[in-house]
Amino acid sequence: MIPFRFAASPALACCAAALLLACAGSALAQSGPWPTRTIRFVIPYAAGSSPDVFARIVAEKIAPRLGQAVIVDNRAGAGGNTGTGAVAKSPGDGYTFLVSTNGPLVYNTVLYKKLGYDPFTELRPVVMGGAQANVCAVRADSGINSLGDLVKAMKAHPGQYNFSSTGVGSLSQLGVELLKAKTDTYAVHIPYASSPLAVLALLQGDVQFACVPAIAVMPQVKSGKLRPLAVSTAKRSALTPEIPTMKEAGLPEIENMAWMAVMAPASTPTEIVERMNQEINAALALPDVKEKLASQFMEPVGGSVEELRGFMRKELTVMTPIIKRSGATAE
Question: pTM of the full predicted structure?
Fold first, then answer.
């Protein structure tokens, strides 16, 4: 068999060369400077929520440095899963980011049988944004003066102590479940729809204690109606320096906090993720940003991509057995 040979004409060769140049130009255009258009921060909660407030404070600062508008897009629903899942399925083009929390990024992988997305494979960490300590508190007239007193009372009267939370599977429940596991105590969980309602239940005597965000507790502490026993963070909060940690209160070291992380679709280029990490870290260091966050009892965290990835893995390892032990589930 005689081999077939193709002899290109000069005109056809010129066309092929032009086509190659056009493709190369297109590739160069696609990999050009970022950003060239508006960036979205998707918030899986309603306007006014902690992640929403955080995102708006940060977006205002990074937009001028990036040279493009940064808008906030609220997509609430399904315990934060709706917005978080939407970003997980979005193209990794550098124009869609997520500001989400403990639940959708870690806890919900255990709480939900069918989550619809995997935050550890379909999202990539950008930076830990901010954190809020929970404050464990009792009524001021309860006769309980320390967290140690509360633990002793729960051991002496098993089943007679109730605690309120902001819902099944929330940090305000799971933080207490962690406390119960570490101290071998028992208390009945009473879920409510919000932090104000959980605090109201405590004020009315419907429950005996609560560990909820500082922003919901501290006004009642200052009014003398509630007594703070401990903060849930490993170190004392700079915003409530007078309140001891659980370890300082004589208990095993217990750490849990409400945190907000910036994430991106998994296919987002590394250089874009690193740039966004740098810009948000720079914003978190600004005095006026710290002041605005402090007004919401939030503290800036920041750090590297790898630090956030490691933190999320650790959080999953610590909380998975606690969630399973509590029997908490969600649909």
Answer: 0.86
Give domain 133-231's CATH superfamily.
Periplasmic binding protein-like II (3.40.190.10)
CA 173/CA 326 separation, integer angstroms = 9
> For domain 39-131+258-326, is the CATH number 3.40.190.150?
yes
Q: What is the end-to-end Cα distance of the chain in Å, rounded?
A: 68
Question: Is the separation of the CB atoms in 105 and 261 below 8 Å?
Answer: yes
* Domains 39-131+258-326 and 133-231 fall in the same CATH topology: yes
Phi–psi pair at 288, nearest 5 degrees: -70, -30
State the DSSP H helix or E strand holding residue 308, giving kind and residue range, or none if neither: helix 305-326
Q: Above 80 in pLDDT, residue 121?
A: yes
d(CA 163, CA 142): 14
273, 264 in Cβ contact below 8 A? yes
For the chain, domain boundaries: 39-131+258-326, 133-231
Rg of the chain taking only CA atoms, in angstroms: 25
Q: Tell me the residue type at 217.
A: V
Would you state the pLDDT for residue 32? 63
Contacts of 102 (CB under 8 A, 6+ apart): 171, 258, 259, 315
Between CA 285 and CA 330 the distance in angstroms is 37
